[in-house]
Amino acid sequence: MIQGVLxxxxxxxxxxxxxxxxxxxxxxxxxxxATGVGxxxxxxxxxxxxxxxxxxxxxxxxxxxxxxxxxxxxxSCEPGMGEAGPVAGLGAGGHWDPDGSGHHDGPNGNGHRGxxxxxxxxxxxxxxxxxxxxxxxxxxxxxxxxxxxxxGDTYTDTPPLGGGGARxxxxxxxx
Length: 175
Known about the structure:
Layout: H1 2-15, E1 24-33, E2 36-49, E3 52-59, E4 65-67, E5 69-72, E6 80-82, E7 85-87, E8 119-121, E9 131-133, E10 145-149, E11 167-172
Antiparallel strand pairs: 1-2, 1-11, 2-3, 3-9, 4-8, 5-10, 6-7, 10-11
């Protein structure tokens, strides 16, 4: 009899759907400079897709053109002290590199997994074009920061870290 009850409970549990994993995330992107974190400039919608992470920006007020865009290792947008003084967003640490590759190779390469596709900003300062990261999932982003750099990205180590330059915007991903 007990076996029959247990079998019935197991069958019932198999019919109850498992809770869905959270695969969507909304973040606020803020301006940053050497003095700290500033005003919001829009949002990032992140979701898992069969092709990896997709980031849908809804941003305004950025300089037009291509911008380096990276997942950084630490969940902070605060400035830090560099060799020459305060540096915007240094609290985010370096590009996320859990595999210890030690190099910058773009979103499809074998370098930092924090290397994302370039963020494209239109002439009016708005960014709406999706960014894809085939080697990432939403769950990889917990307690890290997404950083937009002032310049483009060569997806190489020349110039260092792809040449994106100064950190100009940041979003912290909650733990």
